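Long-time lurker, first post. I've been practising inverse folding by hand and with some scripts of my own, and I keep getting stuck on stretches where the structure tokens seem ambiguous. Below is the full token string for one chain I'm working on. Before anyone asks, I'm not after the true native sequence, just a reasonable design that respects the backbone. If someone could post their per-position residues I'd love to compare against what I wrote down in my notebook.
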């Protein structure tokens, strides 16, 4: 078997492993657990149902989708990953979402202070473990109020009932707590000056109201009970404004549920998913969602193949170092888990990886008109997938600038090249921005353009990121790890440390012995990959630091934001190993590194995550 055939055989094996791995994760991962997965499915369903693109101002989840969120039971994920997700579907009518998983919430039609319904909090606290059960409502306007009142039916237990109001100005949670040591309905009235912190000084139109049952102590037995809440109002002086009485007549049209905050995205990924949804429209919703998960898996698998092609461009076929690029993607827990969920990131990653491949392949060749058009078409398709793709445009500009300098093109040819690129890009995606202008009066909208802002402005600097406990925010929780277990952390340090040692060796040879560690052709290619990483990282960190992607004092810096340039990260990582590993027996060392990645994938996903998803 020749080396070329061996390379093809290894790639086929890797593709098969990725398909098996992704399919297993698509089956094992609780439905809707993926990042905003049900919102992306809702986008596809909207197009399939209405035959039109969604309008962010009125695109809502269907009743079927909201009910499926409750049936999926995805909020029960606990432990290191945190208890996440909303509670039962029937709360969405009132805007209340469940945020703590020690029990369940429902509308109680038999017991109410007034009317026919109340809110039932049925807690199930486990032995020797402090638990909580609660719901929240956001946004809530308390700017003209100075107290909150509600009726609570206690169960005579020693549990605590907590009212909390999160305020945007200080990013704090202001709390008022009372005991549930009474039976029957009792009026609970809480002036804002009795809340912790300066709530009166931080009232606004955008706050979050939380109602919680708190376990008073770690008990020696399981505890269960039911607490009812009814008739919530806010008070300003002697004036009362009713928030809700949980009455059936308060329920809006069930087809008009919550707004879908993913409705602002460009449509390409969702259009590709519509035929699958249409063909399987008579199947159960989880079956349809599983099929769309497999569609995302196919997209990510093509990205793996393109990553292998980039590896061969950089390291050639003689050594199996090229294998490290796709392997880092296949066996990175966060990437492999993410690829098995419904999300438009998969198409963005594929198109960005394909763009980098073409730029690297044509780097030493002149820019023909056909090549410029091809690059423009890919950029247009990427922009139609997700606006995050715009970070590719500066990379293309740098590539063209470096190419033009090398081949000494005239000013007229330079203008023609950039004009052709811009025209081909706009020919593909320009219609989407025109559509936005017609619908919204704006060429571009964001997730919060027409939705209530739920973010809390807090300062964030680079030092805050580096010095925080979540320093591994993108590289740990979001790239090579799902959770910060000691074993996984050691594996991550080992894999990254090997690469770092290789870079240190390369720099030593460069400065000390004047030996070029790259070579002329390789240096240009890695320079372009470095620019891609630098530009993309800078853009993401800037948006996270200054934009609305934040909740409380936590900045939503997800590792998936860096996935578009993951192949470039993998290339630099592989280069470090390339400079460290000896030429003799190098393929054996590559196999050892791949084994470490497999161990990381197995321990982090198939052991640690499974324990949290399906405790046993």
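-- Answer (accepted) --
I ran through it position by position. Result:
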């Amino acid at each position: 078997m020749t080396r070329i055939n061996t390379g093809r055989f290894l790639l086929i094996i890797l593709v098969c492993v990725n398909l098996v791995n992704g399919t297993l994760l698509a089956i094992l991962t609780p439905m809707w657990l993926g990042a905003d997965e049900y919102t992306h499915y809702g986008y596809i369903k909207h197009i399939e149902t209405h035959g039109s693109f969604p309008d962010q101002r009125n695109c809502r989840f269907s009743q079927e989708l909201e009910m499926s969120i409750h049936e999926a039971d995805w909020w029960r994920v606990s432990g290191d990953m945190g208890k996440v997700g909303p509670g039962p579907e029937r709360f969405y009518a009132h805007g209340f979402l469940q945020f703590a998983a020690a029990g369940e919430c429902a509308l109680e039609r038999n017991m109410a202070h007034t009317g026919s319904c109340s809110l039932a909090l049925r807690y199930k606290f486990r032995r020797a473990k402090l638990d909580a059960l609660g719901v929240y409502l956001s946004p809530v306007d308390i700017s003209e109020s100075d107290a909150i009142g509600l009726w609570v039916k206690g169960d005579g237990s020693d549990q605590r009932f907590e009212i909390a109001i999160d305020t945007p100005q200080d990013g704090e949670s202001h709390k008022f707590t009372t005991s549930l040591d009474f039976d029957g309905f009792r009026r609970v009235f809480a002036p804002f000056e009795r809340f912790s912190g300066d709530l009166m000084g931080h009232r606004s139109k955008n706050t979050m109201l939380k109602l919680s049952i708190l376990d008073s102590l770690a008990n020696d037995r399981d505890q269960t009970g039911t607490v009812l809440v009814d008739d919530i109002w806010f008070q300003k002086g002697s004036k009362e404004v009713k928030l809700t009485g949980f009455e059936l007549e308060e329920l809006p049209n069930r087809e008009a549920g919550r707004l879908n905050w993913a409705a602002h995205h460009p449509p390409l990924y969702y259009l590709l998913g519509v035929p699958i949804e249409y063909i399987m429209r008579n199947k159960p919703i989880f079956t349809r969602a599983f099929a769309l998960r497999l569609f995302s898996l196919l997209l990510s698998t093509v990205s793996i193949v393109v990553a292998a092609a980039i590896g061969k461009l950089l390291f050639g076929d003689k050594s199996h170092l090229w294998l490290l690029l796709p392997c880092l993607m296949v066996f990175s827990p966060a990437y492999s888990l993410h690829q098995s969920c419904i999300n438009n990131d998969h198409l963005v990653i594929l198109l960005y990886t394909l763009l980098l491949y073409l730029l690297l392949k044509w780097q030493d060749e002149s820019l023909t008109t056909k090549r410029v058009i091809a690059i423009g078409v890919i950029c247009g398709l990427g922009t139609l997938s997700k606006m995050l793709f715009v970070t590719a445009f500066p990379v293309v500009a740098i590539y063209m600038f470096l190419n033009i300098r090398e081949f000494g093109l005239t000013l007229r040819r330079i203008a023609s090249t950039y004009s052709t690129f811009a025209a081909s890009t706009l020919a593909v995606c320009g219609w989407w921005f025109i559509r936005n202008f017609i619908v919204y009066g704006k060429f571009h909208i964001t997730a919060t353009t027409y939705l209530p802002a739920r973010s809390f402005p807090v300062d964030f600097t680079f030092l805050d990121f580096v010095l925080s406990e979540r320093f591994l925010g993108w590289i740990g929780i979001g790239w090579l790890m799902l959770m910060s277990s000691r074993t996984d952390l050691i594996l991550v340090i080992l894999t990254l440390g090997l690469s770092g040692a290789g870079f240190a060796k390369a720099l030593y040879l460069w400065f000390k012995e004047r030996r070029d560690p790259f070579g002329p052709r390789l240096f240009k290619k890695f320079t372009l990959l470095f620019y891609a990483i630098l530009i993309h990282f800078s853009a993401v960190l800037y948006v996270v630091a200054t934009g609305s992607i934040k909740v409380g004092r936590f900045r939503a810096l997800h590792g998936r934001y860096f996935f578009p340039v993951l192949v470039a990260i993998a290339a630099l990582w592989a280069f470090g190993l390339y400079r460290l590993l000896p030429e003799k027996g190098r393929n054996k060392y590559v196999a050892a590194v791949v084994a470490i990645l497999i161990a990381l994938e197995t321990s982090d996903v198939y052991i640690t995550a499974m324990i949290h998803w399906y405790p046993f």
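A couple of notes from the structure itself: The first strand starts at residue 97 and ends at 101. The two ends are 46 Å apart (CA to CA). Happy to go over any region you disagree with.
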